[in-house]
Design goal:
about 425 residues; mainly alpha; globular; disordered C terminus
């Protein structure tokens, strides 16, 4: 009887393991084919849209901005009337959206200058190709190392709608993601100050990196933090020198003018506070620009983010950059679905920290909540981000120091903290 019981136990254990492996294999194959089909479907939707209106995307605004800067001087980079005239000439349309005006930092206009030697449609395609390459390189630098099948974490680049929209619109989010991934990679390689300078280029989309630099400083990563301060200071000084105070004030006026539209707030905390924002994504109502009522919760959440950064002091730049991104998205005063593509960076950087923890599947919740929040409700997205950030408020993981080796990239995962 005992022998038979032992024999039964010996048979059941391999069967259970084989069944688990079979389920895992089936899930992996399903994820790959599902993402490929979604990616192909999105391309099939984009292609006829592009042929019908090749200039009907945000990159046309970036393309026009440096032209106005070259012809009349950089102080006119925020000349809305001049830009509207140029865009109407390019797109051959009588009426433009109120958002069809350049409101980004001058840095973006400077980066687009080389693209103006090409026709606008060709420039857009080249820009999109470089953005795809930037995302691939960002995954190469920031992708997980400890998880099984790390390439699975690249699948959202093919199928996740925010990533697709950021590429279709010609947004610079891929460059911001690359800057953050490269900053963490350089910091791990002992070039933290250079990584901070690279991180300053996140100013391309400042609302996505509001808390990243402060989180690094509060978290004790002084090398990358000081590099970020220097790089940001240089870019601000160049902006003041070339655009001028009056030009920058005109740009801030444009930002304030578009902040009254509810769809700019729909994915932010304002949805939970302001009933006008909840009235609908395409509501014709208006909301106050930078309302103090919605500013106070943002300030509180920003302080909470920095408190978490203090808790993770000296735990490495990867964790602090991830925390800063999550906090920045939560406190952003202006957010669209394509901006959510920046969340791929914390998903990649935190994967190795949660490889055996209860949070290893949480990125799936984030991806699902960010797929179509404007058509349903942004509450699941905001809640999942808040839970993600708060669950980091636990004792820092005690990683053993990596074994000495000639090439630390071969023997030690790069996101376990500073070497």
């Amino acid at each position: 009887m005992g022998a038979q019981s032992g024999q039964v136990t010996w048979v059941r254990l391999p069967c259970r393991l084989l069944w688990r492996e079979e389920i895992a294999r089936l899930a992996t194959v399903s994820a790959v084919w599902g993402c490929l089909l979604l990616g192909i479907g999105q391309l099939l939707l984009w292609f006829p849209t592009f042929l019908a209106g090749p200039l009907d995307q945000d990159f046309t605004i970036w393309y026009v901005a440096p032209n106005s800067g070259w012809t009349r001087g950089w102080p006119h980079v925020y000349a809305g009337d001049l830009q509207a005239h140029l865009i109407q000439q390019l797109e051959q349309v009588p009426v433009l959206s109120p958002l069809s005006v350049y409101m980004s930092p001058p840095l973006l206009a400077w980066l687009v200058v080389p693209f103006t030697i090409l026709p606008p449609a060709a420039a857009y395609l080249v820009w999109s190709g470089l953005s795809i390459a930037a995302l691939a390189l960002a995954f190469r630098l920031a992708g997980p190392r400890l998880v099984e099948h790390p390439w699975l974490f690249a699948l959202p680049l093919i199928a996740w709608f925010p990533v697709f929209m950021s590429l279709v619109l010609g947004q610079p989010i891929a460059l911001v993601a690359l800057a953050m991934a490269l900053a963490a990679w350089l910091a791990y390689r002992g070039r933290a100050f250079a990584g901070g300078i690279v991180l300053s280029f996140a100013m391309l989309k400042p609302q996505l990196a509001l808390l990243v630099g402060p989180a690094l400083l509060v978290g004790g990563e002084m090398g990358i933090g000081l590099g970020w301060i220097l790089g940001t200071s240089v870019l601000v000084a160049l902006s003041v020198l070339l655009v001028g105070v009056a030009g920058l004030e005109r740009g801030l006026g444009i930002v304030r003018s578009v902040q009254v539209f509810p769809f700019n707030h729909y994915l932010t905390l304002d949805y939970l506070i302001d009933p006008v924002v909840r009235s609908g994504y395409l509501s014709t109502a208006r909301v106050p620009a930078f309302d103090p009522v919605t500013l106070l919760p943002r300030m509180a959440l920003g302080v909470a983010t920095l408190a978490l950064a203090r808790r993770y002091r000296h735990q490495g730049p990867a964790t602090l950059i991830s925390l800063g991104i999550i906090g920045s998205v939560l406190v952003a005063p202006h957010l669209h679905q394509d901006d959510l593509a920046i969340l791929m960076i914390p998903i990649w950087l935190l994967a190795d920290r949660t490889v055996r923890g209860p949070l290893r599947f949480w990125p799936l919740v984030i991806l699902a909540a960010g797929e179509a929040p404007q058509f349903l409700t942004p509450v699941p997205l905001l809640a999942s981000l808040l839970v993600w950030m708060l669950t980091l408020n636990r004792p820092p993981l005690a990683f053993p120091p990596p074994a000495p080796a000639a090439d630390p990239a071969v023997t030690a995962p790069p996101w376990r903290g500073s070497p």
